[in-house]
């Protein structure tokens, strides 16, 4: 697939180097300095990072004092040696396989869960804070023991009390990592020793080659680990950036230029070296399973953390940061307004608000159709109702499906085989030779573009037609290869172990091909994938062209100049292995040779002409090998040419700042495991009833410790529907109605001694059959009513579950006391806010349940309430323009939302969609803000005397409250509805569902995600809605006469 390069904006100059993860994007390495690096905790505390000692030296050096952790680790290691010495061979193998599986699951499952918990909730640090184990006033003996253990492991520059708790928790986590990783290695090493000599090679030279290859892989694995540790050091080796960041610069050279995530990819080459040395299929499949678990660990634990820490912070973090920046700017504007005068300042603010989206005011008709309907990329974005997609499906059916049917029905194997081979050769030559000639002519004389202009078209149509032709050729090449593989598939009486091995290796090659292709596409984008720079050399010429037509070697191109030329045909060799066919192998070799010729005679000349000196000569792998040879020989055998004429270089690429090629592994594995998640969820549903019945038996014991349980209460505060109805006491039905996306407030009452982990969840009224215990998940729709500092230790930016606070104390009403005439109990009163992620975003009838102390034991339920929608003509009046006289929440809760101004006449004045799209845009802006709202909660000191009744007493807990704002990010209808052209799937589903419910037009979430990549605005979506409503209105049931 040749020079399909994506050339968007250059890497950001504002990126700060905060810390390092194992395989992050390249930075600059500063020479080692005497001064220790500076660490920074999530709350901004800076500290000097003490130097850590080498684990192997402190553990195995007999002269080094041993801590309790060291003794436990050595004792566990000795159990493996004891098993080898004491057990017979058969039992030894079983025990060691079980031990290896156990330690591998402890690594990928146990450590992965802990790291994911720490990354998302600061969970491990919060656990130590909550229990006070590292607090000298609360820790007691545990504190003294942990302090002694850590001080014994560290050097003279370490002071237990002078470093933050995050660093000490990380040191303790290191001990657990050492225990698991060393035992994992020991179990695998002794397991391999049990299978030495089990292979039966027919010739001695087979044994020699197998052993030599295994030793080579082991040596390579050792070099990878040593070189990786040289780069990342102990900090990233032990996942230090999950706990704190270090302000230092590192150079990701050496092994990090050879492969993405080398510590998880080529860093496990030793597994396959052990498999070769032993010659055992058992070792090979155990190694393969362990390696796959490591990729799962990378995909679901490390990659998400890398992305949000170094590349792209969560959308909520970006929205809150921008909102705070706007507030700061507004503060300075108020100061300037005193000098300029109020009218001038207001005018300046209005101009600023709309300046960012002024360039996007073009109608949706002036934008390319691909903004809403993305192209077919192989079978990605397939649409059964699109003519071109249907024709490709029919072409596949005629050329592949019918021959297969004839082969199985008539057994004309030879005829079908000849036909499939001829067809495969034809598509290979068409894709490389014919299309190569056309691309070369396009590069030299713009042949295709000139043809379309001559016949009434333009460059957009030329590029669009080329994309369809190229994608068809790619699909048919894959299909014809599959047909040949099926026609030649035959194993006869081959040994079963060989069949399994060849199929496994073939599937691995196919997986490598899929990963490579996805990485290439994610790096290049549509423009580069379809050779867009053959059709446009200026960003303004094509709609898909990136704004910066320059080369950046990032993503998978950091390691290979042309991944397609090197590993882009791996799947075809995999088919050859699976089918055990020399014919398929010959066709794969033909395609590889044709791709080499295509690259040499089409891509390289074009790149040299267009990009010149921007092209590099050596790939990352080649540079690493050259450096290793030069270092080993001691002189400059190879010259490191960073920039050259690029005789052999063929391809480059760029991606948005901070992205890297390894992300496609995560998306691939995530999509693969989705069915497994669905099965788990269904199983939970089947077991929920049984679990609930068992839990109900424990309820009396659970709730017996709750004092004044009858003083708990919940009361829903009225919303926009009640205010729109007039806000009078007579409108009782409107008090329990809320509009989709609207924040919901609830007033709560609880005893002063209530658990600070009490929480409220929202559930459909039919979700739980028991009133005493909740049996279904809240799916994130919950809020803690009165969190304390221990609970707030788990709070991260953008959390919506800590939006509850106490307002004051009062005396419970007489009806809630247990004995008539007894003094009323003192209770806490407060409010909780459900917004953004804590808000159910589906129309329906719901109820709230107040639970005790982090359990699912129900203390009190609210009355049922309804989430519904209003007519689109009433959105601005009801949700946007009404003077929202919300009940006072005190200083602990404040909903600060930016509401757009209501245009004159508005939608409520009988809107005609085709005539007043601007008014519809205002309504859609309000709905978009409801869908994309972000909760900004932060801890604050309590203000005494706030709220009704008496001030909150010290008996209720620490003097900490939560200040909560609801941020609605969009200011103008001309604002893109994404952050940096990114819209996550959850937000897209919410936005699409809101459009469907409020405006009656359904958009697929994939369409909205794709449009966001092209900076689509609220106004663009409005135009699309208008077109859809006009097109569908004539065929609606209300307009059809009987």
From TrEMBL:
Top EC category: transferase
Alphabetical UniProt keywords: Endoplasmic reticulum, Lipid biosynthesis, Lipid metabolism, Membrane, Methyltransferase, Phospholipid biosynthesis, Phospholipid metabolism, S-adenosyl-L-methionine, Transferase, Transmembrane, Transmembrane helix
Location in or out of the cell: Endomembrane system; Endoplasmic reticulum membrane
TM helices/strands, residue ranges: 71-90, 96-115, 276-298, 390-410, 416-439, 468-490, 496-515
One Pfam short name: PEMT
Keyword check for Zinc: no
Membrane topology reported for the UniProt record: Multi-pass membrane protein
Catalytic activity: a 1,2-diacyl-sn-glycero-3-phosphoethanolamine + S-adenosyl-L-methionine = a 1,2-diacyl-sn-glycero-3-phospho-N-methylethanolamine + S-adenosyl-L-homocysteine + H(+)
Lineage: superkingdom: Eukaryota
Annotated Gene Ontology cellular component terms: endoplasmic reticulum membrane
Keyword Nucleotide-binding: no
Region (Disordered): 1-44
An example Gene Ontology molecular-function term: phosphatidylethanolamine N-methyltransferase activity
Pathway: Phospholipid metabolism; phosphatidylcholine biosynthesis
Main location: membrane
EC annotation from Swiss-Prot or TrEMBL: 2.1.1.17
UniProt record, GO biological process: methylation; phosphatidylcholine biosynthetic process
InterPro entries for this protein: Phopholipid_MeTrfase, Phosphatid-EA_MeTrfase_fun
Role according to the record: Catalyzes the first step of the methylation pathway of phosphatidylcholine biosynthesis, the SAM-dependent methylation of phosphatidylethanolamine (PE) to phosphatidylmonomethylethanolamine (PMME).
Family per similarity comment: Belongs to the class VI-like SAM-binding methyltransferase superfamily. CHO2 family.
Protein name in UniProt: Phosphatidylethanolamine N-methyltransferase
Organism: Coemansia biformis
Gene that encodes it: CHO2
